[in-house]
Amino acid sequence: MVESDMVSTMHGCRIAQMKNPLVVLLLLMPFMGSISCSAGRDETSNVAEAPVEVVFTDAKPSVAELVRGLLDNARKDPSSGSRRGELGMAYEIHGFPNAAYTSYIQAESREPTDARWPYYQALMLAKQGFHEQALTALDRAIEIDPEYGAAWMWRATWSLDVGLNGQAEEGFERAKSLGLEAVADAGIARLRLHQDRPEEAVAILEPLSQKARYPSIYQLLGRAYRETGRVDEARIALARGRTTQPLSWSDEWEEEKRAYEVGFQARILRSQRALKLDRIGEALTILEALIEEEPGNPVVISTLSSAYAKSGEITEAFLTLRRALRRESVDYTVHANIAPFYENRGDHDIALQHLDRAIELNPSVAFPHTRKGLLLQKLGRYEEALMAFENALGTSADDPHIFFYAGDVEALLRRWDRAIYRFNQSITVDPSFTLGHLNLGLALARESRFSEAQAALERAKSLGTHDGDVVRALSYVARLEKGSS
Description:
With 485 residues, the protein is mostly helical. The chain is built from 26 helices and no strands. The longest helix is centred in the C-terminal third of the chain and has 18 residues, at 467-484. 69% of the residues lie in helices and 0% in strands. The protein is flat, with a radius of gyration of 28 Å.
């Protein structure tokens, strides 16, 4: 979809209106220009009376139909801010930022008591880097609804970005009081780092990382450790936060826009979000409709099977995959995902057949190789299991678990030097991988390398994720050492 921009002789930031009601409005200038026109003035003034329309070039029919209905609603009730705001949300979610931004301005002019309209303007301004203007719009939203925690988080974050440290601290503290404790504390820690006070950041982040194990918090903790000279601890924390996922928080107003997603792919994403949030009934309703439309879609098949399994309908989860196998074209994920059902029933040969078929269809994906290795290990076919893990590593050498699984098999074969090598590889890939340190310590102890074993287990203990296992391992190593003396 392309939002058409056209220069006109119309004055100011008004929107040109075309006579053909089916083609209708074009925004006059890019979003950057729209913002510059609104900066430094009352953004609710001089607003075009007609609802904003765009020209669709390659939009999907479902999107065009949605927008057409919302436009009709806005025309029928021209004084309604909600109608303009709904239209704006649909425009934004489908990639028409100019139309969305102007619609939010129109919504605010008609419904100045709804904080969402200046709030959405603020978010769009900030995405373009206009943080000062975003803060101005956000202050209007907060004046209307001072109890919305997400607004205070944004106010604090943008204030920090433009160097308003006092305003940032106020915002984080207010967000914390409104229920966003973890992210607000992370924000305060980030502020302390900006203020060159890394020790205080560490004091906030160390307990926080135990309660909220988010990548963004580990990233901040790693930075704080590094700035205090704790290099080894920084390396582990940064490894735990290596996904570089940005700090995020609950935002119900932003989530409201998702209701205007249409199209097949958008509905898949909505079902996956619902499933992740344990809204299983909602996910199933969406997925059962999607499977009727595209019964061979591998993402829908796998997600629907997972949703049934999560709801406790194991038989239906299995049958969803069985039905997919009857189709002329079968994706490798169907074979890979049905294998565990046969494995759990004890039909190991059938499970292996499906895993082999998944590998045949897509040999460059690690997952089927890894699952095959685990099943072969379970069956005591250790050399074959090692070969499967080697094949998995040939496709993906950045997963510490695969190195760990290979090390586990080497340990079962009492090839301690090979086990040590593999466990070392697992913690090289991810220094925060506790089980790698734990099993490395045990393997080292079997080679009578007790001081190294103790160091590995102490590192596992410091990570704080498998305390009981570490205590048992330390006791075992102590007995081994005592028996060897």
